[in-house]
Amino acid sequence: MERLKKIRVAGLPLPLYAMAVVLSAACMLTHSLPANMVGAFFFLMTVGGGLELIGGSIPVVRTFLGGSVVCTLGGAVLAFLGLVPGPVLETVDAFINDSGFLTLFISGLITGSLFNIDRRLLLRASVKLLPVAVAAVGAGVLVCGVLGALIGDGFWDGILYIAVAMTSGGMTAGTVPLSSIYSAQLGVPAADVLNRMAPATVLGNILALIFAGILKDSGKRFPCWTGNGQLVNDGRPVEQIPVTELKTEKLVGGLFLSVAFYAGGALLNRFFPAVPIYAFMVMLVLVVKCGGLFPEEVEDAARQWGRLIIPAWTSASLLGIGLTLIDLNVILANLTPAFLITVLAAELAITLTAGLLGKAAGFYPVESAIAAGMCTTNMGGTGNVAVLSGTRRMELLPFAQIVTRSCGVLMLTVGGILVRFFG
């Protein structure tokens, strides 16, 4: 009984949360859930908080998946089984994607996490991490090509439609523009190309989530493999930025900074549309951070906003990702044994290569496998959030964003070149 009294879900004591669950169910059954951001937020926080509690409480699930992964996969299963009414799903989809809630959330995470790391560490780690990530992606590409040849799909088809799709930076910034590139070169509808590549993108993201849970458990079993969120293991001291008290004016400033940097990324994307907005956003924050262009109090404002939204919005965001961006129908329709083996082998090759090369480069292998491995095969910024929250290593987000965006742009370029000759 005492343990039950201490449980908090979505910031509320368990009895009050139970009342919120009843209210949410009543709203759905009577079709009275507000069809706006208020209704979507209420539903996502209620269900997301419950799934996070379940994922963090059941022994086996807690060990290998965790609450964050359960939120994402649970949302996909709820949508697949039709357990969420159509109008509610439409409201959530509009809020998460059309209204830009995920954009707001990820923008806050990018600015907060990048300003929360020592600039010298950021520079020396990024310089070594990108080659590790590129080599890991190369291993995955080679595996897909070889298996494609062995199962009869062809060496280049395995690369073009599985490897490149898995590592192109997600659906919106990767597979969708990639389908347009292929379409222009091959003279076929972009929708046909997208339907062929999307299963690899979605399944790669799901496997990244599952691998994240396995790596989190391996870090507990073998403590010498992990820095528990710290990437660099080169023996040099890491400056810890002090945690300050949350203040209203700094939270307001942090919110403003996050949307301002996103607007800057959007402006640059207007003139260089081949580069995703988030990639430009990361570049802008890196320039400001590494150049020391902002005073400490402004950087602290960005950090405080990031600290607020992680516990407040993560479970809701992950549930929204699962409900609206992971389509299990697409996965099951293309889930042949050969396809599954190819994607699984590629994911394994990328993860192991990133871990082993990362260790040689002076990183902890678990953190390197996550940041330079699984964050190249998930669904972009949303996938990074899901993977890192699932491993309880959100400190790696700056490195994950750099890797995801850099490798994504690289694979878009590589795919565009290869399809001309081998498509």
Describe, in plain words, how this protein is organized in 3D.
The chain has helices at 2-6, 14-29, 37-55, 59-64, 67-80, 86-98, 101-114, 119-151, 155-166, 171-186, 190-221, 248-271, 277-291, 296-325, 328-333, 337-360, 365-371, 380-390, 397-422, and strands spanning 8-9, 12-13. The protein contains 19 helices and 2 strands. The protein has a two-stranded antiparallel sheet. It folds into 2 domains: 2-100, no CATH class; 102-422, no CATH class. By secondary structure, it is mostly helical. The protein is globular and about 60 Å long. Strand 1 (8-9) and strand 2 form a beta hairpin. Helix 2 crosses helix 3 and helix 14 packs across helix 18.
Blueprint of the fold:
Layout: H1 2-6, E1 8-9, E2 12-13, H2 14-29, H3 37-55, H4 59-64, H5 67-80, H6 86-98, H7 101-114, H8 119-151, H9 155-166, H10 171-186, H11 190-221, H12 248-271, H13 277-291, H14 296-325, H15 328-333, H16 337-360, H17 365-371, H18 380-390, H19 397-422
Antiparallel strand pairs: 1-2
Number of domain units: 2
Output the radius of gyration. 21 Å
Strand neighbour order, sheet with most strands = 1-2
Helical residue percent band: over 70%
TL;DR of this structure?
This protein has 423 residues and is mainly alpha-helical. It has helices at residues 2-6, 14-29, 37-55, 59-64, 67-80, 86-98, 101-114, 119-151, 155-166, 171-186, 190-221, 248-271, 277-291, 296-325, 328-333, 337-360, 365-371, 380-390, 397-422, and strands at residues 8-9, 12-13.
